[in-house]
Amino acid sequence: MLRLRRPRDTIVETEGVAPRPAIGLALGGGAARGLAHIGVIRTLVKAGYPPDVIAGTSIGGVVGGLYAAGKLDVFADWALSLTRREVIRLVDIAISGGGLMGGSRLAQLLERELGETRIEDLPIGFAAVATEIGTGHEIWLTRGRLLTALRASYALPGILPPVRVGGRWLMDGALSNPVPVSVTRALGARLVIAVSLNADALGRATVIQDHGTDAEDEARPLVEKRPRVRAVVNLGKGLGRGLGRALVRPLRGRDEAAVDPRIAIARSPGFTTVMAKAFNATQERIARTRLAGDPPNVLIGPRLSKLGLFDFHRAADAIAFGEEATERLLPDIAEALKAVS
């Protein structure tokens, strides 16, 4: 049985305003595309629908947690100031430790704003979703230090190291619950508004029932020659700059091979492309199943296919996409609120 430190009432009463059902916001994962959550929240608040509880996964946890802590505008200003060069500077290569990046630079930025803020002291209900390594358990972080919970929720496997929380090693929550509708309801929300950052991809993947090698495949060597790495110590700053540049290259929603089929033959996908596409495919299929089994009252799906997963320097575009998608659905939110009242 779920026990929360501060159970939420399903009816919210505000002085001078008619009582209404508690509004919950489920914010999905999606790396830089998650900056669209800023636009979503701002539009909801402006329209008179501020969330009473928030559950977030990965970047959704970061944006939701910062909003709950009253730091959303500070974070938005910082994101809007980012350039490609500044994004690269955030990349701190770690040869060991469970990820290519140490993640300390990003953590320090969050620590500067959040300090020792604890989840149970936030003015609204909040939970960050993470996944336990080994067991695959879906972990709801509803108490303790907010910064640690956020770091665990966005610990992208292979890129960022896992985070130890309460004796468990945790990684990105998108591997277990990409859009945490169920968590938001458990926190007491009567009306659940979910934000999926992969709406462009939902339902796109299918099954190819008959496929095999062709003449081009059979003409290629079994193992392609790759440059030899003489020593790990030689990776250094060069690797850091290279990975940084790779991370901020736009990773579009469509494959390059769809534009020019020759690319698929001439060049294999790079490391960051493989990581991003693999994570996207896994997240999309899990999200499709979870949303079908436990649909929200309103699903907001900003059209973000033109935004790369690591395009943090395009915050203005992401925020605008979130605002536009939410504004289109304001009438649906009003109707849904009446239906659950």
From TrEMBL:
Source superkingdom: Bacteria
Key words, A-Z: Hydrolase, Lipid degradation, Lipid metabolism
PANTHER family: NEUROPATHY TARGET ESTERASE/SWISS CHEESE D.MELANOGASTER, NTE FAMILY PROTEIN RSSA
Listed name of the protein: PNPLA domain-containing protein
Start and end residues of each PNPLA domain: 25-185
Placement of sequence motif GXSXG: 56-60
Source organism (scientific name): Phreatobacter aquaticus
Molecular function as annotated in GO: hydrolase activity
Any GO BP: lipid catabolic process
Pfam families: Patatin (PF01734)
Short sequence motif DGA/G: positions: 172-174
Positions of the catalytic residues: 58 (nucleophile), 172 (proton acceptor)
